Amino acid sequence: MKIVHGLLEGQVLQRDSKGKCYADLKGKCVSEGDVEIRILKNVKTVVHGWTVRGRAIKKEFSAKLTAVKTGGPYRAEFRIRKGQKVLDEGIVSEFFVGDVWILAGQSNMQGVGNLVEAPKPHEMVRAFYMRDEWGVAKEKMHFLEEAVDPVHNDYGSGPNRPSKKDLQRQLKESFNGVGPGLGFGLEMRRRTRVPQGLICCAHGGTSMDQWSPERLGEGGGSLYGAMMRRYVRLGQPVAGILWYQGESDANPEDAKKYTQRMKRLVASTREDMGQPKLPWSVVQLGRHTSFDHEVSWNSIQEQQRCLPQLISDLDVAPAIDLDMDDGIHISGKAQGKLGERLARITDRMVHGNRKSKKGISLKSIRLIPNPNGVSGLNDTLVEVTYDNVTGNLMSEGLPTGYALLNEKRKDSRAFFKTTLKGNRVFLHSNMNACELETMSLSYGHGKDPYCNITDKEGMSIPVMQRVPIVTEIAHYCNHWQSKPLTDLGKLSQFNYAKTNQLKGWKAAPPRAGIGVLPKERDSKKIGLFALRTHLKADDKMTARWFMWANAPFKVWLNGKAILDDSKASPPMNKLYDTALKLKKGENEIMVVMDLPKPAPFLGIVAQVGDDSRKRLENLSF
Nearest Cα to 124, choosing from 79, 91, 166, 94? Predict the structure, then answer.
């Protein structure tokens, strides 16, 4: 008797929710009759005595393996009986019952870490190698040269396949090959105390297009087809899929399609494997010592961070802080740590272990007063709060990794200190609140940042890219014209009607950071200067005018004075606001400032919004 489907030598069978496994077996034989099965543990102990489990006919047999409890190693003995006569026999000398996982993606899942740092194997952590054989899991697990599917090496099991001796020699000569799979399996065994099975399916340098479910029909000639062929060959459900991929899609064309392709890939595996809630544990891209396609790389990372919000039964583990063995591949030692991170999120997601946290996720970003700040200088902090933090956030050395980005995606280099407290991060800068509100926040900006913030268990906070510090913020008024006012008296005596005679208006220069200046920053002129802008309302309405200023000023709306402060001075930390009763159509806002000295920073910052300083959509500037 020879089993060809359902139970291979050394296989790990997937346990069900009650801790038992079931398998449909098929095979070849030379006789006909009843198929009996006996299960032993540790060779000697009979777990299930001889029982009829199937039937053999026309040199083929089928049978069912039922209710084998979690554990192992087990031994399965088979025989065909007709009456009292045994006509044929077979043995699977070793198999296990536990949890089985598919390892898929590209090179960092395949493993390129140095083998000298590979984790030590454990007899209860097994691998279904690419040669379609089970064994104790040990690196290098993804040995593409021995794969039987041609997508991995072009020859598969065909006539050009190297000899077993040549393959063994190539494997022996390998110096790299550590991925996160073995570290994951070891940690899951430690956590659950049950055997672990790892199905090796990853292939370096591969894109989402190459993993497309639409290529299922190509069988072993495609990555998705090869993965599904191996899944079908084993004849068992799996506990989940581990996925590390995205490097090959970090380009302008493919990055924009990443989320949709991930949705399709996850949905297809769940449908094709008949497991509607099949869990996915995804690694967020780490570092790459390159400047190529930085925006696309960060886009992939941000999309991966957001996947759990879009796809159920999926969680993400970061890799941004891990050591590397070359410019893009996680080191052998760090792959073990990554495996532990994957085990943490998987244990919670798959087994519901409440002692195990999900991946750390962003909860909120907000601006708060700095109780230790000086007025106008470091008086506002950016507070970042995270969920799913074990213990406290911490770092080796000074915590670092955040970037404050302007609208052009450039790092303002504004943070001079980062402090950690519990599950919160406090970012210190010399910017005031109105400047910070216009910025976005990143952690792990670029392709090769230095990031070092983790929780007590060593789980990194995730990379995030260009997350607005304040959302739906009121429109900033950035398009102004300016004009020096000579011989028009003092601000307190200024006559708005005289502005109708003014000519020679010019575009107001931008103020450093945010806002506008009434004159060029290198101008030595002082005295009165006028600024004007126009906004168009779709209908008659009441809005709010918000403004910061660091010199005496007066504001008019359509010729009517609405706001003034003759004592305004640096720093720009006082927020003024008043009602704007806008008419339908075009409205003019005029600001006259009295500059007491030729300082290059005296100017204004202005917004128009609703009572909560939120954006109004029926206005244009």
Answer: 94
Percent residues over pLDDT 70 in the chain: 99
Chain position carrying tokens 């100017």: 603
**Can you tell me the distance from the alpha carbon of 596 to that of 583, in angstroms, rounded to the nearest whole number?**
34
Tens digits of per-residue pLDDT, 217-268?
Answer: 999 999 999 999 999 999 999 999 999 999 999 999 999 999 999 999 999 9
Give the tens place of pLDDT for each residue, 351-407. Answer: 999 999 999 999 999 999 887 765 555 678 999 999 999 999 999 999 999 999 988
* pLDDT value for 500: 72
Asked if omega into 581 is within 30° of 0 (cis), the reply is no
HEC-encoded secondary structure of 391-450? CCCEECCCCCCEEEECCCCCECCCEEEEEEECCEEEEEECCCHHHHCCCEEEECCCCCCC
Contacts of 425 (CB under 8 A, 6+ apart): 383, 384, 385, 386, 393, 399, 402, 418, 419, 453, 461
Cα–Cα distances in Å, from 482 out to 336, 420, 528, 576, 587?
62, 44, 11, 21, 17
Q: Is 580 helix (H, G, I), strand (E, B) or coil?
A: strand
Query: What domains are defined for the chain?
Result: 2-97 (2.60.40.10), 106-142+175-351 (3.40.50.1110), 362-468 (2.60.40), 475-620 (2.60.120.260)
In terms of Cα–Cα distance, which of 470, 425, 426, 466 is closest to 444? Answer: 466
- The single-letter code of the amino acid at 265 is L
Whether a cis peptide bond, with omega within 30° of 0, leads into 279 is no
Three-state secondary-structure class, residue 147: coil
What is the C-alpha separation between 350 and 14, in angstroms, rounded? 13
Q: Per-residue pLDDT tens for 559-571?
A: 999 999 999 999 8
Question: What distance in Å separates the CA atoms of residue 9 and residue 13, rounded to the nearest whole number?
Answer: 11
Residues in Cβ contact with 305 at an 8 Å cutoff, skipping those fewer than 6 apart: 284, 316, 362, 462, 463, 464, 465
Cis-peptide into 598, omega within 30 deg: no
Conformational region of residue 233, where left means phi above 0, alpha means psi within -120 to 50, and beta covers everything else: alpha
Q: What is the pLDDT of residue 451?
A: 98
pLDDT tens digit string along 411-445? 999 999 999 999 999 999 988 888 898 899 999 99
Apex 548 CA angle, 546 and 554, nearest 5: 85
List C-alpha distances in Å: 188 to 241, 348, 366.
Answer: 14, 11, 37
Mean pLDDT, the chain, integer: 94
H/E stretch holding 351 reads helix 332-351
Q: Which pair of structure tokens corresponds to residue 354?
A: 């409440």
Q: Classify burial at 204, counting beta carbons within 10 Å of its beta carbon; exposed 0-12, middle 13-18, buried 19 or more.
A: middle
Question: CA torsion, points 290, 295, 296, 298, in degrees to nearest 10?
Answer: 80
